[in-house]
Amino acid sequence: MPQIDLAGAGVQPATAVAKPKVVARDVNVHYGEKHALHNVSIDIPEQAVTAFIGPSGCGKSTFLRCINRMNDTIASCRVTGRIELDGEDIYDRSLDVVQLRARVGMVFQKPNPFPKSIYENVAYGPRIHGLAQSKAELDEIVERSLKRASLFEEVKDRLDAPGTGLSGGQQQRLCIARAIAVSPEVILMDEPCSALDPIATARIEELIDELRENYTIVIVTHSMQQAARVSQRTAFFHLGKLVEQGPTEHIFTTPEDKRTQDYITGRFG
Ligand SMILES: Nc1ncnc2c1ncn2[C@@H]1O[C@H](COP(=O)(O)OP(=O)(O)OP(=O)(O)O)[C@@H](O)[C@H]1O
Ligand SMILES: [Mg+2]
Questions:
Q1: Of all helices (H) and strands (E), which one includes residue 207?
Q2: Terminus of the chain with fewer CB atoms < 10 Å: N or C?
Q3: Residues whose CB is under 5 A from ligand 2 (ion)?
Q4: Residue range 222-243: mean pLDDT, rounded
């Protein structure tokens, strides 16, 4: 990993982590005139879950979208600073964004299966990325992805049925299977459980815990309990700034910043 120059005003030192997968330095985001993110620096470790928490509008989704360049799709959005994936600048002009988004997958708040069969929802990515040489190979990827998303047993007899016909929790697991199918290295989840009931939420949380063995996971959540349950590291955002970050236990028990303390004790947000 190349040495990154942290000199310069206003740069927060990111607390170092073992084996960072994603390294962000001094990231600023503007939507037109609006300065939505200020000098965000963070190291996101591999094989761990990092939670982004903070009040509505503080920039959690904005920063999450920087990590796979989803903000490129918003015309007014301008991103500056540096973000590296395995030491490689993801904003480098020679970088293939389609390839980046296969390496850094995303799961959204509202389950959004394609209006296609369960099978096709999962097969779509591997097919466009040429990951299977034959139908048998594709079948195997679909089955493996559905198993990893702990959905296979529930849908194995109806793979040709529409994905949109599943329950909300099943649809979200289908979206996770779809994200996994292209063998990403990082999975970004933006409030993946906010549309789910407690039972479906518990299943997704268990799944996230299993997935962290193989992936780097970043989850945005409004639930402090969820952040405490599923993450090893937590970053607290407030008014476009990353106020505090560190081991989850530390953030929830002995936060250093008053704003973090107020948020986790429910005083605002
Ligand atoms: N597409 C956009 N165009 C203009 N402004 C935007 C856009 N998306 C977000 N913003 C602004 O950027 C700031 C950060 O928004 P963001 O969606 O990242 O917050 P958030 O922390 O994810 O909030 P929430 O918890 O409500 O999802 C807000 O002030 C928001 O209004
Ligand atoms: Mg958001």
A1: helix 198-211
A2: N
A3: 61
A4: 97
Full DSSP string of 223-265 = -HHHHHHH-SEEEEEETTEEEEEEEHHHHHHS-SSHHHHHHHT
The answer to whether the CB of 76 is under 6 A from ligand 1 is yes
pLDDT tens column, 171-198: 999 999 999 999 999 999 999 998 888 9
Domain presence at residue 152: no
Q: Verify whether ligand 1 is closer than 6 Å to residue 57 (CB atom).
A: yes
Residue with the larger pLDDT of the pair 8 and 84: 84
User: Ligand 1 pocket check: which of 27, 29, 52, 60 to mutate, most ligand atoms within 8 Å of Cβ?
Assistant: 60
Number of compact structural domains in the chain: 1
* 119 occurs within a structural domain: no
**Whose atoms come closest to the Cα of 223: which ligand?**
1
Nearest atom (ligand 1) to Cα of 54 = 21
- The verdict on residue 53 lying in a domain is yes
Is the pLDDT at 156 greater than 50, yes or no?
Answer: yes
CATH of the domain at 256: 3.40.50.300
What is the C-alpha separation between 263 and 2, in angstroms, rounded?
35
At 242, give phi and psi (nearest 5°): -85, 105
**Domain carrying residue 37:** 20-112+185-264
Share of the chain above pLDDT 90, in %: 88
Residue 120 is assigned to a structural domain of this protein: no
pTM for this predicted structure: 0.91
pLDDT at 62 over 80: yes
Q: Does residue 207 line the site of ligand 1, with CB under 6 A?
A: no
77, 29 in Cβ contact below 8 A?
Answer: yes
Asked if residue 66 has its Cβ within 6 Å of ligand 1, the reply is no
